[in-house]
Specification:
heterodimer; A: alpha+beta; 7 helices; 32 strands; elongated; B: mainly alpha; two-stranded antiparallel ribbon; about 5% strand; globular
């Protein structure tokens, strides 16, 4: 026993532990450099074996100090330093168990009272307010079909998680369906951006792909060049008994369309690019779409009808000006995109019009006038740099579904910036036992066999902050003449009081400290300010330990002679040398 | 002797003589997120493009004026530096050349193909190979030359409302009907006619015309930076250090006249060192240790500072010899490796601004690197003495003590600095310790020295071992200081990251290990032939 005590207190063990710790940490930093921070933390810093290693170090330091008790004056520095280390380690332990370190992202004008932690979890339950939380960090031991994770949730429901992508991309895909709008898949190839797949449907209108825009229209025959462009006229949105319909105005001008599953037929009587009132009548005032308006007629199967004026830019002026029977359960909206309104940067240089004719052929017309018909699988060169366009799939009627695929983060990218994770879950006991994918932030409702609805979600764990933080205003200051953010600050309101949080000027409230961490810019939308929120109950002990540690070293090195009465390393005794 | 020294000092301290461009170089310009004199803009861009401080031994301002006055000649002149044997060969360029013309490069089909390739990789966020990165540098230099020629680099047209607003460039000036445009035209005429004197006489009118267009920064700022650029205090400090080094090397003792002359010379160099540093702080408006270049200068400063203090107390000569050797190497490196040690004064990332704890933390931790640099030099001397002069017992004793004291200072400062880093992190990010690579390596470096000190108490290391260990442990410091940013390239401290020089640092590490190995072998041979190290008894255990 005494031999063990001596061994644990020995300075030789200390040297071995110091060198081992240095080696472990060094290896960990290389791991971090090759993989990423979270992997290094999982494998080393937050692992059980590292905690055990630190515990051994703690015991060594403790025994080394204890075995020398009662301490002699010359050991003052030694004792202070080593007690400091012990206190520092205890403080770190408290932080590890009771500390909170999370994030809070708040949009300008809104507020938040929850701190999001970097801990993914699955949520299950029938009551939105009381969901069961299950830790779901699958990154280092992902579930597979032959190695699923099962969670018994009670009520005869079992969740089976059998798939995981650390980074996933949700891609819309179109599949042939008995009903729906047409869809065409195009593939763009270029030496500059590689291969890009793109789906087009008429309701998308003009879609921008890098240097070009494209638009698909379903037509009876390819229109002459210069003819009015169908979807230029915008889209009509109808809500019939809560059932949505989205129809191109241009189509409805040519022929009335029956709304599937209802008794109604809709048609556009006239389209006014610039609606103006003259002599109490709504007439067209010019060819440019300055105030686009449509006159729409909806008929039921008894010949009763309603007519509306719908304005794209001034929907508050939408009116029903004729009604021949009881009101239809119909709500209508008209939307026409502003010509060449682009949220980012200049308009694309090139444009491609596609026409899908009833024979299933896709015809193209480039902005340079070049026209032709796609042969599936055969690339067409529009003459835009070296871009080639190939038509892949055509569906006369298609429905959209979402597929998930794994995304490998290129090394140049930072791990954190990759797309979110996704898990595949199937619920045994649900009406539909098909597996479904959930991405971070998804919350879905499913029906159980007993008819009850059941909520299933995948999100980061969050804890209440105790206070509500409202972001009143967010400001960014730039370095002169650049777009490099120099400072940013958030004006917030907490418990009725206004504060400013900025870099290096945190706010302490409700036991937490809010630090300005970063921000996100939303094109056209409000700023999102991101705060780090932390509560570190171990900080006092850590600071105390540090102060003791440093003052102990100082005492050992520079005050020892005064403690012992012997000034051993006295300057007067510095050997003099002559050559 | 003293008179000679004074004359040298005076010659060094002589202010830059007035020249044809003295007014032009003081014109304020906006560049890289701050206002600086045109002198700095030209010096930085010419150095970036040509890799030389004075290309063709011309004033950088004149070089750029000459280019702007005759763009076609500038495009045809071999002025873009590119030195990478492999790539030069691959691109079909003369592998023994150093400068190429823009014309030659832009018409080279391999360069074009490679440019497409790199561009595609960047768009798709693919990882760039080191060769790609070198090539991107070449592209950036070509781009820089173009921005000089089309006038978009010189942002000398003041913002009409706000001095810190966006300034206009010469390219913008071309579209504005104003006196400044005319004056600039006249100035370039003189440059085209190869008349620097004409440039000088055209400058006042240009300066007046520009000043009329918007608020200007204080002239004292521009003056200060021009002074900093032209005086180049660090470049004058190290020759004085070299002089001091040799004076002290040949001084017979710590009392001799030569020793004091050496001390005086070192102090003179040190004053210049401080002067340069103060100027730089004033220009940047912040403490000076935020990138590799500044930290190298600061560490050299710290090493000399500690050595001077120790010398004043102990008069051993060894402290100063060790520190001067380190400082000379550091300052020469700082002057000659702009790609790795970028001397440009840049604005800081937000988290580093206005921060008391940052200043304290960084200054403390880099001072510990300085103390360890001193111990590194002393470690070399101890090993050398044991290997070749083991009969000089007094010298060995003095050296051992000196080494131990230097390590003590380093350990105290590194421990304090690492902890202060935690205080800063807690203050800025809300966490005391987050296992960030820079933090971890500071800790590893500290653990290395702690292992040495404990190993000494355990009786495993004696004086020779401590000295050998101090050299090996310094490699940990080097990793924390340089390696985390340049080798690991991960973590929160990424605002100091860059590329380059890794192979040289690796060679340095290998050379140090070789030195330790060879002298250890030599020492072993010596000890076996005589008695086992009589002056190297184990320290009394704690």
């Amino acid at each position: 026993m005494k031999a063990l005590y001596k061994f644990l207190a020995s300075i030789k063990l200390a040297v071995v532990l110091l060198l081992a710790l240095a080696a472990i940490l060094g290896t960990a930093t290389f791991y971090e450099s090759i993989y990423d921070t979270k992997t290094a933390q999982h494998l080393v810093y937050n692992s059980v074996w590292f905690a055990i290693f630190l515990a051994v170090l703690f015991i060594n330091v403790f025994c080394a100090a204890a075995i020398r008790y009662p301490w002699k004056p010359y050991q003052t520095g030694f004792v202070i330093t080593h007690v400091g280390i012990l206190i520092l380690l205890i403080g770190s332990l408290i932080t590890m168990f009771y500390g909170v370190d999370g994030q809070m992202a708040v949009e300008e004008g809104s507020s938040s009272d929850r701190i999001v932690l970097d801990q993914p979890q699955l949520l299950f339950g029938t009551d939105q307010a009381q969901l069961q939380e299950i830790p779901a960090e699958f990154r280092w031991s992902p579930p597979r079909e032959d190695h699923p994770y099962r969670y018994d949730l009670g009520q005869g429901v079992t969740a089976v998680v059998d798939g995981y992508y650390h980074h996933s991309v949700a891609e819309p895909r179109y599949v042939a369906a008995p009903e729906g709008e047409p869809a065409v898949k195009l593939e763009f190839t270029s030496s500059r951006f590689g291969v890009l797949d793109n789906w087009l449907t008429p309701s998308m209108g003009k879609v921008v792909f890098g240097p070009a825009s494209a638009r698909l229209q379903a037509v009876d025959k390819v229109p002459e060049p210069g003819a009015a462009q169908a979807t230029d006229l915008g889209m009509l949105q109808l809500l019939v008994a809560d059932e949505p319909f989205l129809l191109p105005v241009a189509d409805l001008m040519q022929k009335p369309q029956a709304l599937k599953g209802t008794v109604y037929t809709v048609r556009v009587v006239r389209y006014l690019p610039t609606a103006v009132v003259r002599e109490n009548k709504l007439v067209n005032g010019g060819p440019e779409p300055k105030n686009p308006c449509v006159e729409v007629e909806v008929k039921d199967d008894h010949g009763k009808r309603e007519r509306y004026y719908l304005f794209s830019k001034l929907p508050q002026l939408n009116t029903k000006f004729e009604q021949t029977g009881p009101a239809f359960p119909v709500r209508a909206m008209f939307e026409q995109a502003e010509p060449d309104a682009h949220e980012h940067g200049p308009a694309p240089k090139h444009h491609l019009d596609l026409y899908l004719t009833p024979d299933g052929q896709v015809h193209y017309r480039f902005e340079n006038g070049k026209t032709g018909t796609f042969v599936p699988g055969e690339p067409v060169s529009p003459g835009w740099m070296d871009i080639q366009i190939t038509q892949r799939d055509v569906f006369a009627k298609a429905r959209q579904e979402t597929v998930y695929r794994e995304f490998k983060v290129p090394k140049a990218d930072k791990e954190k910036e990759g797309p979110p994770s996704a898990v595949r879950v199937r619920l045994e006991g649900a009406a539909n036992p098909e597996p479904m994918w959930l991405q971070y932030g998804d919350l879905k409702e499913v029906k159980l066999k007993n008819g009850k609805s059941f909520i299933i979600g995948y999100a980061y764990r969050s804890v209440p902050a105790g206070v509500k933080l409202e972001l009143l205003d967010f400001e960014v200051g730039y370095d002169p003449g650049t777009k490099t953010a120099a400072t940013y600050k958030s004006k917030v309101k907490v418990e009725g009081q206004e504060y400013t949080i900025q870099m290096n000027e945190p706010l302490h409230r409700g036991g937490f400290t809010f630090y300005q961490s970063s921000y996100q810019e939303q094109p056209g939308g409000p700023w999102i300010s991101v705060f780090s929120v932390a509560n570190d109950p171990g900080i006092f002990l850590k600071y105390l330990g540090c102060i003791l540690l440093v003052s102990g070293i100082f005492t050992m090195f520079y005050l020892k002679p005064y403690m012992t009465g012997k000034r051993k390393y006295n300057a007067a005794q510095m050997p003099k040398e002559t050559t | 002797m003293k008179r000679l020294l004074l004359i040298i000092l005076l010659a060094l301290a002589m202010p830059a003589l007035a020249d044809d461009f003295s007014q032009l170089r003081r014109l304020p310009a906006q560049d890289g997120g701050r206002l600086k004199p045109l002198d700095t803009v030209a010096a930085e861009s010419v150095r970036f493009i040509t890799g030389k401080v004075r290309f063709k031994n011309e004033d950088p301002l004149w070089t750029e004026l000459r280019w702007m006055a005759d763009p076609d000649a500038a495009l045809a002149e071999a002025n873009i530096e590119f030195r990478n044997k492999d790539l030069q060969t691959k691109l079909g360029l003369d592998p023994n050349g150093r400068w190429y013309s823009f014309k030659e490069l832009s018409e080279n089909p391999q360069v074009k193909a490679r440019q497409m390739d790199v561009h595609r990789k960047m768009q798709q966020k693919e990882e760039l190979s080191n060769e790609d990165k070198e090539f991107s540098q070449l592209l950036a230099r070509m781009q820089m030359l173009i921005s000089v020629l089309d006038g978009s680099l010189w942002h000398i047209v003041p913002n009409s409302a706000d001095v810190n607003g966006s300034w206009g460039s010469l390219a913008d000036l071309k579209n504005i009907e104003c006196p400044a445009r005319e004056e600039m035209g006249k100035l370039l005429e003189s440059a085209k006619a190869n008349k620097p004197a004409g440039v000088a006489s055209a400058t006042p009118a240009l300066a007046t015309a520009l000043a009329a267009m918007g608020p200007q920064p204080p002239t004292a700022w521009m003056e200060r930076e021009v002074q900093y650029n032209s005086f180049h205090a660090f470049g004058k400090a190290w020759p004085l250090y070299v002089l001091a080094f040799f004076l002290i090397l040949f001084a017979p003792s710590g009392q001799s006249k030569l020793y004091w002359l050496g001390m005086f010379s070192a102090a003179a160099g040190f004053s210049l060192h401080i002067y340069g540093f103060v100027l730089r702080c004033l220009i940047a408006g912040r403490p000076p240790v935020t990138n590799m270049y500044e930290s190298v200068i600061w560490v050299a400063f710290g090493a000399v500072l500690f050595a001077l203090i120790f010398e004043l107390v102990y008069r051993t000569r060894y402290y100063l010899l060790a520190a001067l050797a380190g400082a000379i190497i550091a300052l020469i490196l700082a002057d000659n490796l702009p790609a790795v040690l970028d001397p440009t004064i840049k604005p800081l990332t937000p988290v580093l601004r206005n921060n008391f704890w940052l200043t304290i933390h960084v200054l403390t931790i880099t001072l510990s690197y300085a103390a360890f640099l001193l111990s590194l030099g002393l470690g070399h001397m101890v090993l050398w003495a044991y290997a070749f002069q083991s009969d000089k017992k007094e010298r060995l004793k003095t050296l051992n003590k000196a080494l131990y004291k230097a390590i003590q200072v380093g350990v105290l400062l590194l421990a304090a600095g690492t902890i202060l880093g935690g205080v800063w992190a807690n203050y800025s990010w809300g966490r005391f310790w987050g296992w960030d690579p820079k933090e971890v390596w500071a800790l590893i470096a500290l653990l290395g020295y702690l292992a040495l000190l404990h190993g000494r108490y355990a009786g495993w290391l004696r004086h020779f071992g401590l000295a050998a260990g101090s050299i090996v442990a310094y490699l940990g410091v080097l990793m924390a200081w340089y390696g985390v940013n340049f080798v690991l390239g991960a973590g929160l401290h990424s605002y100091g990251f860059g590329n380059g020089g890794v192979q040289y640092v690796a060679m340095f590490c290998a050379a140090e290990l070789l030195y330790v190995a060879v002298l250890t072998w030599r020492y072993r041979v010596n000890s076996r032939s005589s008695r086992p190290d009589p002056v190297d008894p184990p320290d009394p255990a704690l």
